[in-house]
Write a structure and sequence with these properties.
By secondary structure, this protein is of the alpha+beta class. The protein has helices at 87-102, 131-141, 156-168, 182-188, and strands at 11-12, 17-22, 25-34, 38-43, 52-57, 65-75, 78-83, 106-114, 117-126, 145-154, 172-174. The protein contains four helices and eleven strands. The strands form two sheets. The chain has a six-stranded antiparallel β-barrel with strand order 2-3-4-7-6-5. A five-stranded mixed β-sheet has the order 1-8-9-10-11, sandwiched between helices. The two termini are 28 Å apart.
Length: 190
Amino acid sequence: MKEQRRHQRVRFNVQPLVRLGQAGSTGLGRLENLSLGGLMVRTELPLQVGQALGCEFSVFGSVLIDISAVAVSRVGDLYCARFQPGPVSEQLLKDEIARALACGKASVLSLNEFQGRRVMRVAGGLNGCLRNDFMHGLIKVGVDEIDLSQVNDIDLAGAELCRIATQTYRIGVVRPACVIDDEMAAIAGW
């Protein structure tokens, strides 16, 4: 079991707004996830799959990222788009993703195999935005251990995910590097 994606998806505890434009129409959307290769956005703007679009967004007060993309798929009001980045926009994306992860406002969850064990790793913030991916790892993939050593922020929803993992699924958890209070530790089952 190894991550198949070229670039890891970053999720946000609060979904940033995205300004979109395609063929003369403009609208707003919410950034569902972001990677160096593209984004997933929820919008009412009817984007045409296979066509170029413009995206402008800021990740929690960062510099404005203005990048071209091509819509590659759609499910309802959820679109996936692949970036057409240049060297400057790619570096901006790297910097802003790193900054958002470092302050716990963004999260990355990966599933890996290490020494014959299936390990779920979380970096950045452990919060409710990871619920679907977290539960998929627990229920469908099956993990032997959860490594939270690179988690720098945890909220009540994140603590509840830990409680489910430890108490319901009996999975060992490497605790986060961040300091959590006694109430949060009790919820997480530590």
